[in-house]
Automatic annotation (TrEMBL):
Signal peptide: none annotated. The active site is at 11 (o-(5'-phospho-dna)-serine intermediate). Residues 382-445 form a coiled coil. Transmembrane segments: none annotated. The keyword DNA-binding applies. GO terms for molecular function: DNA binding; DNA strand exchange activity. It comes from the Bacteria. It comes from Pelotomaculum schinkii. This is DNA-invertase hin.
């Protein structure tokens, strides 16, 4: 049975310039697939994704299907739909052919010959070259326009509107910007206070929201555009546009360029330069004041949260009637615009008690690593995981057998590929996908089970040296050690029912109940 995979891709730019809609590509690719004798068609698509990226959701699913032997034929409208990067084109082509899958394009005569490969490579190189030339001309044109005093990009921040290439004031929003500067400079009010007042006075944001975020107000107060100067070429944003398609760890940040590379462009001012500079000085003064504060140290900052409201918890000092300070952790959020203000009534737990409980748990692990190893073996139940994995693998084999039976029956002409049969095949495919997902989860759990025991063996080796130094560790050293062993600390309940749960980095969880507070 011939199973064809169709890969479709369109970016916003492609659709606007060339009309490469997904629907158009799908129509001609399906025709090509049926003409090549396909009995079943699998569709994989990426919409609004650049062809320069190799890590695309639809393409990744297609490659997985090819690796699993689920595809005989692979059809794409054009090589540049597969990738705009020559190296990626060649890599994907080689990967597809190694799997024994026939690769064909609708808009390109592909032949598995030396001449065909050369032409394919040259075509990809030319397409990549053309794109780079277009990009280079675009960048050069924007830089030239900026040097001539024109705006090469839309710069319609709050208070402005962009019409026919010209930046104009949005009078209604501009009045709000003036209020923001007035409140911040003339009154004893910080950025958070300004955002809160805007929300209380029901002044809508640019998007019509009723709640103002602190970060939006700070951007308005620090952007030199409001004083009449827009700076172009301030940042190197290469690769930033692809962030939405990448996992967090692979995303890139815009980098600031040297000031001598900035291009200043005059724009309509909403506040005068003196007012803007006063705002900058107040922000700097507040920063200097904060940096000079005597800050308390919190051992669990960044890893403690409240399960009752879902908020992370942070350190907060409570000043008692006698003037003494008491460190604590709270889930209350007072930042303007926050969607979750925390538990009511306010939950606050003494830092010393919580930190002692967590630190004692860490010391217990280090004092008795053999008991910890035993507990891990009891909790991870590797035997049960392996049994579940074997059961899932059997179910996957049953589903594959069921699909083969349907395909064989179709090939033998016992029944036609009617809607009912199509629905049956789709159901089997969906079931297989669920089972494969569960299989992957079990494999990860097994891996973690093994890794956990290895980790504890490492701790056993290091425990002696740790224990001899525990009392002499500095705060930063304690904090670092704690984060090595503890993944998260969660707080739930209050008073006698307060519970502290220590989630180890190598164990599902270890619980410890506090004394009455």
């Amino acid at each position: 049975m011939n199973i064809a995979a169709i890969y479709l891709r369109v970016s916003t730019e492609d659709q606007a310039r060339h009309g490469y809609s997904l629907a158009d590509q799908l129509s001609v690719c399906r025709e090509k697939a049926f003409a090549m004798g396909a009995d079943e068609i699998l569709e994989f698509a990426d919409e609004g994704v650049s062809g320069e990226l190799l890590d695309r959701p639809g393409l990744s699913d297609l490659r997985e299907s090819i690796r699993n032997g689920q595809v005989n034929i692979m059809i794409c409208y054009d090589p540049d739909r597969l990738s705009r990067n020559l190296a990626h084109q060649l890599l994907l082509t080689d990967e597809i052919e190694r799997a024994g899958v026939r690769l064909d394009f609708v808009n390109f005569e592909w032949q598995n010959t030396p001449d065909g490969r050369l032409f394919y490579a040259l075509r990809g190189a030319i397409a990549e070259y053309e794109k780079e030339k277009i990009r280079e001309r675009t960048v050069r044109g924007k830089m030239q326009k900026a040097r001539q005093g024109g705006l090469p990009v839309r710069a319609d921040s709050y208070g402005y509107k962009f019409e026919k290439g010209t930046l104009l004031l949005n009078q209604e929003e501009a009045e709000v910007v003036k209020l923001i500067y007035k409140w911040f400079i003339s009154e004893d009010m910080g950025v958070n206070g300004v955002a809160t007042r805007l929300t209380e006075q029901c002044i809508p944001t640019r998007k019509g929201n009723s709640i103002w975020q602190r970060c939006v107000v700070k951007t308005i107060l620090t952007n030199p555009m409001y004083a009449g100067t827009f700076y172009y070429n301030r940042r190197d944003c290469k690769g930033v546009a692809y962030n939405k398609h990448l996992p967090l760890e692979k995303r890139v940040k815009a980098k600031s360029k040297p000031k001598d590379e900035w291009i200043s462009i005059p724009v309509p001012a909403i506040v005068d330069l003196a007012t803007w500079e006063k705002a900058q000085e107040k922000i700097k003064s507040a920063r200097r004041l904060w940096s000079g504060w005597s800050r308390e140290e919190y051992l669990l900052s960044g890893i403690i949260s409240c399960t009752d409201c879902g908020n992370t918890m942070h350190g907060a000092v409570k000043v008692k009637y006698n003037g003494n300070k008491e460190r604590g952790y709270t889930c209350v959020k007072t930042t303007a615009g926050t969607s979750n203000n925390g538990c009511k009534p306010i939950k606050r737990v003494p830092a010393e008690i919580i930190e002692v409980i967590v630190w004692e748990q860490v010391c217990t692990w280090l004092n008795d690593p053999d008991a910890l190893t035993s507990e891990i073996r009891e909790r991870t139940t590797e035997k049960d995981l392996r049994a579940d994995l074997e059961r899932i693998e059997k179910l996957i084999a049953d589903v594959e057998k069921g699909r083969d039976n349907v395909r064989n029956a179709l090939a033998a002409g016992l029944f036609d590929l009617d809607p009912k049969t199509t629905k049956l095949l789709q159901g089997l495919k969906g079931r297989e996908k669920q089972l494969l997902t569960r299989k992957k989860e079990l494999e990860i759990a097994l891996h973690r089970s093994t890794a956990a025991e290895i980790r504890v063996k490492e701790i056993r080796k290091q425990a002696a040296s740790f224990l001899s130094k525990l009392d002499a560790l500095s705060f930063d050293q304690k904090k670092a050690l704690l984060r090595t062993l503890v993944q998260q600390v969660t707080i739930s309940g209050r008073g006698d029912n307060l519970r502290v749960t220590v989630h180890a980095a190598f164990l599902p969880e270890v619980e410890a109940k506090t004394k009455k507070l």
